[in-house]
Amino acid sequence: MLQIKQLQVLRDQKLLKYDFQLQQGKTLAVQGLSGVGKSTLLQVIAGFVAAEKGSVLWHGQSLLELPVEQRPVSYLFQQNNLFEHLSVIQNLMLGFADDTDQDQLLDKLVNAAIELQVDKQLEKKPTELSGGQRQRIAIIRTLLRPEPIILLDEPFAELDPTTRSLATQWVADIAKQQNKTILMVTHQSEDVQQLADEILQLQ
Ligand SMILES: Nc1ncnc2c1ncn2[C@@H]1O[C@H](COP(=O)(O)OP(=O)(O)OP(=O)(O)O)[C@@H](O)[C@H]1O
């Protein structure tokens, strides 16, 4: 269970407030007007922005004191974050423990790339990819990492409707298989219908 208890964040001289909980394995769509604090919520959970008050608990453990790299969180930023000097497949291989079986991992990543129709891009550098291809690679990277909490900030924004639907379904399948707990910022009602168990409407 992820519990956000009376969380307060000061941003741009505004006090943003959050209070909700989400069961493990569920997907929450975070919605609301531009500037209401959707990205800020993800940034606080991930540890990039500090809170004034309140708590963020994962299975009862407080996350706010933990440094970014120790939080059980995998985060897809609004500007998807790939290292430009590495190939796509090298980007995908980052962030797994040293004892991970490399052949199995490669298999898993290649299969995901085939499903999301970006397998031809694996040896390329991120700069050679279109926006939609980068976004699918970033989705694969974020979802297949080991962390149980997945934060997605407009993950499908650059995808055409067909590819978007493919990617949404893939995320739903992985989330179910791996019992991921997902917070997803989106403006699209199709994403909500396909993926979300619950909606948090920020005001
Ligand atoms: N890096 C920052 N430094 C200071 N204030 C910020 C920063 N990023 C956002 N803000 C402010 O925090 C508030 C919430 O912004 P946030 O990006 O969380 O909104 P959002 O709901 O995700 O918006 P959008 O839908 O436009 O992405 C806004 O008033 C914004 O101006």
TrEMBL record:
One of its GO terms (molecular function) is ATP binding. It comes from the Bacteria. The keyword Nucleotide-binding applies. SUPFAM superfamilies: P-loop containing nucleoside triphosphate hydrolases (SSF52540). Pfam families: ABC_tran (PF00005). The keyword Protein transport does not apply. Keywords: ATP-binding, Cell inner membrane, Cell membrane, Membrane, Nucleotide-binding, Translocase, Transport. InterPro entries: AAA+_ATPase, ABC_SmlMolc_Importer, ABC_transporter-like_ATP-bd, ABC_transporter-like_CS, P-loop_NTPase. Residues 2-203 form the ABC transporter domain. This is ABC transporter domain-containing protein. It comes from Pelagibaculum spongiae.
